[in-house]
Design brief:
Helix content is about 35%, strand content about 20%. It has six helices and five strands.
């Protein structure tokens, strides 16, 4: 959860001539292009499908809220140079309905990153009318930004458990990615390992 009251600026004002405002449907093609270029998300021909995805999941989803909207940053030439999504969630707590904003898909054009456009986008999102704002899978830079804007890290929610089903194949692919014969031998070794370990690591049957 992250809220900040000490960093507020006049609404719609960012830095270096860029203004932050809510996303409009007409912005979707430009947002799709920005996201694809920022994250290398496929070829240029994939942009219409990406724009349709944003429209479906951000603007047309059943819980969309006119007060909690995705944001874009627009420079002085009218070009969209930044974007942050806000996926709205509603939950019940103590008989009261709470509105949560889930921050996602943050993208800033390389030329605008020195102007702290991403900070202004995130700051304005955090200061929205929602009861709390969440995010996950943050990069180290994004995590630092959230903490400086008053957010908190939920460490227990960041624990992940992974079970590798084919350890020898994984090790062979990482150690010798260009030797397919060795990967074939590792696959056979995995068969032997799984057969021998099945009686040791298999979970006990449940009572149901």
């Amino acid at each position: 959860m992250a809220q900040s009251s000490s960093l507020r600026e006049p609404p719609g004002v960012a830095s270096a001539g860029a203004a932050v405002r809510p996303l409009e449907r007409s912005d979707l093609p430009a947002v799709a292009a920005l996201f694809r270029e920022t994250f290398g998300a496929g070829p240029r021909r994939s942009e219409p499908a990406l724009a349709a995805f944003f429209e479906r999941t951000l603007l047309d989803q059943p819980w969309a809220d006119p007060e909690i909207r995705p944001l874009v940053a627009v420079d002085g030439r009218g070009s969209i140079v930044g974007f942050v999504a806000a996926e709205v969630r509603r939950m019940l707590f103590g008989g009261r309905t709470l509105r949560f904003a889930w921050a996602a898909h943050t993208a800033v054009a390389p030329a605008a990153r020195r102007s702290a456009v991403g900070v202004h986008l995130m700051r304005q999102l955090l200061e929205g009318p929602q009861d709390a704002t969440f995010g996950d899978s943050a990069s180290p830079l994004m995590e630092q930004m959230w903490l400086r804007l008053g957010g908190r890290r939920l460490d227990l929610k960041a624990i992940n458990w992974v079970r590798v089903f084919k350890p020898a194949s994984v090790a062979a692919r990482l150690a010798t990615p260009r030797r397919p014969r060795l990967r074939g031998l590792a696959g056979g070794l995995d068969v032997l390992i799984s057969s021998a370990a099945r009686g040791v690591i298999a979970p006990a049957p449940g009572p149901g």
